[in-house]
Amino acid sequence: MHPFNAIRPPRLALVLSVAGLVPFVTGALGLWVIPEGWRDRVMDELLAYAAVILAFMGAIHWGLAMRAEETSDKAPIQLGLSVIPPLLGWLGLSLPIALALPVFFLAFLLLYVADRWAVSHGLAPVWYPALRKPISLVVVSSLLVAWLALLQGF
């Protein structure tokens, strides 16, 4: 079976994706347990990492679109959409934290929708949602935990 049509994600992709969750989870939980003087710094680092990951995820879609450019009429759409995640990350970093968190939250939700769209149009591997769904749930949950910390006046 060609790896593009495999149902399960490659083991290395899974391991690296889980490792990439560490800053999200530790940052979000850290807001609740670290001394108050460090919380602004932790929030800034969490949002900076979220912006980096949005740029990374946009680049994945860019690469998939380039790979499919000659075989799919949907590739140009995906190529155009691939710049939205990093732009949302940049926007989020320019906003006050109370507005940035919802932007990041929605950006990661929309990115998952884009991931599913890419798979349904044959632009991303069949296994991609099996990787992205649990990863997206952890990222979105972490951002929600961070948002709740902010609303509690961290």
From TrEMBL:
Signal peptide: none annotated. It holds the Pfam family DUF3429. The chain crosses the membrane at residues 12-34, 46-66, 87-114, 134-151. It comes from the Bacteria. Keywords: Membrane, Transmembrane, Transmembrane helix. PANTHER family: TRANSMEMBRANE PROTEIN 69. This is DUF3429 domain-containing protein.
